[in-house]
Amino acid sequence: MFRLLATLVGLMFSATRAGHDPGLVPAGAGSGGGTARAARAPAPPGRRGPAAETWPDQPADAAAELIMPSAPAPGSAPAPAGPPGRPRPDWRRRRRLAWAAGLAAVVLVFRRALASVLLAALAGTLHLVGINVHLPHISFGWPWQSIAAGHSTSTEVGPWVLQKIEGISRPALGQASFDFLFTHRVSKSIGPWPCWYASTFYAVGRASATVDLNPGASWWQPAAGHYRLRILRRPAGGVPGRVSVAMVLPAPQLPQSPHQVTVDTMASRPVSVQHSWTYPGLGCGTVLRPQFPQSVLYAEAQRMAYTKARSSPQVTRPLISSAEAMATRTIRDNFVQPTVNALGYRLAAFSLSWAPARSAAGRPGG
């Protein structure tokens, strides 16, 4: 009977404690009455405790309350840095690099088709605004067509060489030096007395002949036949190709004014003096007083040199030969050969001939 009573009391005590929060722990006695107080501790994870205002024994002194630390919930991870929903900067950079690499690969593979379309669009735009520019021709083609053709290059070398020639802005000059004698004379008669004084000078002249290396777009029309390029062998297997070029240019133009001829004043000198029998008599010497200013002598020598550079075969032949040699060397070495070498060819033959009578602008050729 006593055991049954003890069991019932224990069950009642357990039921009474079950109505309270199990998170209560005894707190230390206060400074006033020494009565035992209960401190509130947070409920364990996963369990919700009653509100704070429902506690009948809430301590009055907050400093004496025992607060038990709460354990973090299992499986929780720190939030990612940065604002949510936006990619990180390194991801954006990688994405841009991937797009750039893909675009470069597409341009490399389809470069022939893109070049053909761009050149066609550029030619149409220039034609609309009224600009006549010779552009190279690149036929449209897909990469697999080039692979199936089995040749190493399909570039038309002729238009590229002609475009280089059409870009020449300076003419070729052939120069020749020649010496001659000229006489400067001063005369004035006094009544029946003849008075004159003359001096002969040795002079050295220099003249230039001009070759127009770019006569204009009409000169290079295919129907005129002034430019012909033949492909003798295309490059294949690492072996460069071979081409031949034949051109026709306007004939060299001789000097058109005395200002295109110079006289070397350092080399010029007097060689002889002549005068009338009355000079240096008293009358003629007083009246004439012959003077030879440098400007007068230079102008007379320049006119004499211009006449010889236009009419004397001893001067015109070497002058024209020098201009032709200079033009041939300039066209071949500076424009044709570097262009064909850059495109994988070698210049097997080069010939330059001259139009017989007139230049491209309709002026006399010489």
Q: What proportion strand?
A: 15-25%
Mean pLDDT across residues: 76
Structural class: alpha+beta
The residue fraction in helices comes out at 25-40%
- Number of continuous helical runs: 8
What's the arrangement of strands in the largest beta sheet?
Answer: 3-4-7
Q: Sketch the topology as an H/E string, one letter per element.
A: HEEHHHHEEEEEHHHE
Ranges where pLDDT stays below 50 over 5 or more residues in a row are 18-41, 62-68, 146-155, 359-366
How far is the N terminus from the C terminus?
153 Å
Radius of gyration: 54 Å
Could you give a short account of the major beta sheet? 3 strands, antiparallel
Number of separate strands: 8
> What overall form do the CA principal axes indicate?
elongated
Characterization of the model:
With 366 residues, the protein is α+β, with helices and mostly antiparallel strands. Among the domains are: 97-146; 151-354, no CATH class. It is 35% helix and 22% strand. The protein is built from 8 helices and 8 strands, in the order αββααααβββββαααβ. It has helices at 2-18, 89-109, 111-129, 143-149, 157-166, 282-288, 294-311, 313-342, and strands at residues 25-27, 37-39, 172-187, 196-211, 227-233, 241-249, 261-275, 345-354. The strands form 3 sheets. It has a 3-stranded antiparallel beta sheet. Strands 5-6-8 form a 3-stranded mixed beta sheet, covered by helices on one side. A hairpin with an 8-residue loop joins β3 and β4 (196-211). α5 crosses α8 (313-342) and α7 (294-311) packs across α8. The chain is elongated. It starts with a helix and ends in a 12-residue tail after the last strand. Residues 18-41, 62-68, 146-155 and 359-366 have low confidence and may be disordered.
